Amino acid sequence: MTLKIYEFEVELADLEPRIWRKVILEESATFEMLHLTIQGAMGWLNYHLYAFEIDGKIYDDEKSRRSGVSKHLKTGTEFTYRYDMGDDWLHKVVVTDVRDHTRFDTYQKCLGGARACPPEDCGGIPGFEQLCLALKDETHEDHASLRQWTGAYDPDVFSASQANALISALLALS
């Protein structure tokens, strides 16, 4: 029996320039594992509730622990992933490939992406846009406090190696 690998492209909706990730999971993965993989790939820390919506069906925290992705998804399937119901981060997710596992595939991994994900609890899209403006403008009244809060955060930087380290940590803690 050959193990299958599912490849997903995950894009944070309604933001320009795009913030996206390409991730892979094994066919036996649950939606909870997909959630944790997206969390790590995006740089989030699994602080909030989430839900997937596929063909009108909701897979939330409880239901996602029992439901395997392979029962519901095939190449070309598009669905949504919502994280943090307060900030309301909506993601468009597309299954871009289902292929046989190779010796080069790690089961849960981020293959690539662009731009840093917004920091947790920054206020959704409006808050993130204001954060980016304030961080770029040293004369902005909130620049110093936001720089202190975000540290070295740069909205234009993405690191696949950091994403993969966080994916591994989140999956190990689940």
**How many structural units, i.e. domains?**
1
Structural class: alpha+beta
The residue fraction in helices comes out at 25-40%
- Helix segment tally: 5
The largest β sheet comes out as: 7 strands, antiparallel
Order of helices and strands: EEHEEHEEEHHH
Strand order of the largest sheet: 4-3-5-6-1-2-7
Regions with little confidence, pLDDT below 50 for 5+ residues: none
Q: How much is the radius of gyration in Å?
A: 17 Å
Overall average pLDDT: 92
Quick one: overall form? globular
Assign the CATH topology: Structural Genomics Hypothetical 15.5 Kd Protein In mrcA-pckA Intergenic Region, Chain A
Proportion of residues in β-strands: 25-35%
Strand and helix map with partners:
Layout: E1 4-12, E2 20-26, H1 31-42, E3 50-54, E4 57-60, H2 61-64, E5 78-83, E6 89-100, E7 109-114, H3 124-136, H4 143-150, H5 160-173
Summarize it.
The protein has 174 residues and is α+β, with helices and mostly antiparallel strands. It has five helices and seven strands. The model has no long low-confidence stretch (mean pLDDT 92).
Task: Give a description of the structure.
The protein is globular and about 60 Å long. It is built from five helices and seven strands; from the N terminus they run ββαββαβββααα. It has a seven-stranded antiparallel sheet. The protein is of the alpha+beta class and 174 residues long.
Characteristics of this structure?
7 strands, alpha+beta, 28% strand, Structural Genomics Hypothetical 15.5 Kd Protein In mrcA-pckA Intergenic Region, Chain A, 174 residues, seven-stranded antiparallel sheet
